[in-house]
Design brief:
Length: about 240
């Protein structure tokens, strides 16, 4: 068992702990950024606003920015520690949260939302998608990524009676599964569940793709890249949806 360095009192304490990973895997971020660039097209005379909600240390936004020339990318997070790190990578990063008072943006003010590796950490994902739908203009783009509960290796682990990768039973330590870091996952999705959930929240699903997981052991990474061809087996799910 691997334990976290600090025993958190609640989720806010957990995510304000600098030892908790908030970086986003570059291979996944790059694939997601390319999906968004294809969806938005060139800025031309109509620069668009992209919000990276739950931006963490700014990795995803910084990866996306060079592929979105002319568009405005703004990072959003409620963790002050994450925002301090994000501001070293991206020019705009503001504090905001999906629940409680909501995000500091007017209704229908954003053209696209990056929602990278966030939904699996939320107590109330329904309210989160409601708030994202509020700030997106009609037809606006949602680019969501999250771990796949049904990843190829998780299927084998479950057959062996082992807790799946990405799943966690405690904020204080790893129990019964491979891995070394506690990252605070509360919810996991299969491709079918993610599609149904997003559609039920007022979005039209456009595309679902797979991405590799940077934490897969090196000898298994070629297999993990191959699995991306079938999102049902991929480590990470990349979903593109539009506000209906």
């Amino acid at each position: 068992m691997t334990t976290s360095p600090v025993k958190p009192r609640d989720l806010r304490d957990f995510y304000e702990n600098p030892a908790v990973p908030v970086a986003s895997g570059t291979p996944r971020s790059l694939r997601q950024a390319r999906m968004l660039a294809r969806a938005l097209g060139p800025a031309a005379d109509h620069p668009q606003t992209v919000l990276d909600i739950g931006c963490g240390d700014g990795t995803a936004a910084a990866t996306a920015a060079p592929l979105l020339p002319g568009h405005r990318v703004i990072g959003v997070d409620w963790s002050q520690d994450a925002l301090r790190r994000a501001r070293t990578r991206i020019p705009y990063a503001v504090r905001g949260e999906l629940t409680g008072g909501g995000l500091p943006f007017a209704a229908e003010s954003a053209d696209a939302v990056l929602f990278s590796e966030v939904i699996e950490h939320l107590v109330d994902p329904d309210a989160a998608l409601d708030e994202i739908r509020r700030i997106l203009r009609p037809g606006g783009h949602l680019m969501l990524s999250t771990p796949n509960l049904a990843a190829w290796y998780n299927r084998a682990l479950l057959l062996a009676g082992v807790q799946p990768v990405f799943s966690e039973v405690s904020l204080r330590g790893i129990h019964g599964r491979p891995g070394k870091e506690v990252v605070g996952h509360l919810r996991l999705y299969t491709p079918r569940a993610l599609r149904e959930f997003v559609a039920a929240s007022g979005f039209t699903v456009v595309r679902l793709e797979g991405a590799p997981f940077h934490g897969v052991p090196r000898p298994l990474r070629p297999l993990d890249r191959l699995a991306c061809a079938r999102p049902q087996l991929a480590s990470i799910l990349l979903l593109h949806a539009r506000r209906t």
